[in-house]
Design goal:
With 303 residues, this protein is α/β, with parallel strands linked by helices. The strands form 3 sheets. Strands 5-6-7-3-8-9 form a 6-stranded mixed beta sheet, sandwiched between helices. Strands 11-12-10-13 form a 4-stranded antiparallel beta sheet, covered by helices on one side. Strands 2-1-4 form a 3-stranded antiparallel beta sheet, with helices on one face. The chain is 35% helix and 29% strand. A hairpin with a 2-residue loop joins strand 11 and strand 12. The relative contact order is 0.14. Helix 3 packs across helix 4 and helix 3 runs parallel beside helix 5. It has 10 helices and 13 strands. The radius of gyration is 22 Å and the shape is globular.
Length: 303
């Protein structure tokens, strides 16, 4: 378990993180989410003891981090760093041994992960021969090759194509279900919504929204409607009491004003669009992110 208590970090006159608190526990995936520059990476670096907080504290199972704790941690940093002139296997074995893993055990795990990520043919290739996506997968394996209890992934989906992104998502979910403490940071709400059990949304270094994802979504009501259709999407833009939160040519997520019911909306669009899906649902994490961060930005401009 990782317990972050009222941490604050400044760089000169810039406040990077201000009074952020959360607890990441085993058995799920905790999401540290927010826009670029929100303070997510700084928070993770404080947890990793790369930066020390100006105030507040961070506890691992009730105590401050020790050297022994560091070998229990796996870390995928936002800025990737692999030695370019060594082979994939040499790199992975070296990093696992730095974390105290027995070479034979580490090699077995590395081979299993290379197989899973379809990198077996690249095992003895040099790092600088890899594509960006391949390097990302190798760096991911490096974070877990020593079989850590606690794992931090900072923007783990960066540089991945859709197939690799799905594989990464499923893998992170499995790690969370294996009773590890797993924390990811991301600005991509679609990924966070699919894999996170709990979240904290930060903006400008401050906590905006926090809690179990289900509870957070329920708190923001059920006046969201998802419509999949064939037809002219601009129809929704003509409705003053309907707000498009996420809109694509054949898909929209809408927020309805209080005076408009989902039944009323369906009556309006029936016959004008060919509807394949009409679903009343809790708001998406994307909508909550856009609305709450937008409100924070407006408040900041007024200060």
């Amino acid at each position: 378990m990782v317990d972050v208590q009222q941490v604050r970090k400044t760089f000169g006159e810039t406040v990077a993180v201000e009074s952020v608190s959360f607890t990441a526990t085993p058995g799920g995936v905790f999401g540290l989410i927010g826009p670029n520059g929100a303070g997510k990476s700084t928070t993770i670096r404080m947890i990793m003891n790369i930066f020390r907080p100006d105030s507040g504290q961070i506890l691992f199972d009730g105590h401050r981090i020790t050297e022994q704790d560091k070998n229990r941690i796996g870390y995928l940093p936002e800025e990737r760093g692999l030695y370019k002139t060594v082979t994939v296997n040499e790199m992975l074995i070296y990093l696992a041994r730095l974390k105290g893993a027995a070479p034979a055990d580490a090699q077995k795990r590395i081979d299993e992960w290379l197989e899973r990520f379809k990198l077996v043919d690249w095992k003895h290739k040099k790092i600088d021969e890899l594509s960006k996506g391949m390097s990302q997968k190798v760096q991911f394996i490096a974070a877990i090759a020593h079989d850590p209890d606690i794992v931090f992934f900072d923007e783990p989906f960066s540089g991945l194509d859709p197939v690799s992104s799905d594989l990464m998502r499923d893998t992170i979910l499995e790690l969370g279900q294996s009773r590890r403490t797993v924390l990811i940071s991301t600005h991509i709400m679609e990924h966070a919504e699919k894999i996170c059990s709990d979240i904290v949304l930060i903006n400008r270094g401050r906590e905006v929204v926090a809690g179990p994802l289900k509870t957070v979504k329920e708190h923001y009501g059920h006046r969201s409607v998802i419509v999949e259709f064939d037809g002219d999407r601009q129809l929704f833009d003509t409705m003053s009491d309907v707000h498009v939160i996420a809109g694509y040519p054949r898909y929209v997520e809408l927020r309805l004003d209080e005076g408009l019911s989902p039944d009323d909306l369906l009556t309006r669009i029936a016959g004008r669009l060919s509807i394949s899906r009409f679903e009343v649902t809790a708001p998406s994490l994307h909508r909550i992110f856009v609305e709450q961060v937008g409100r924070e930005e407006k408040d900041h401009e007024l200060r």
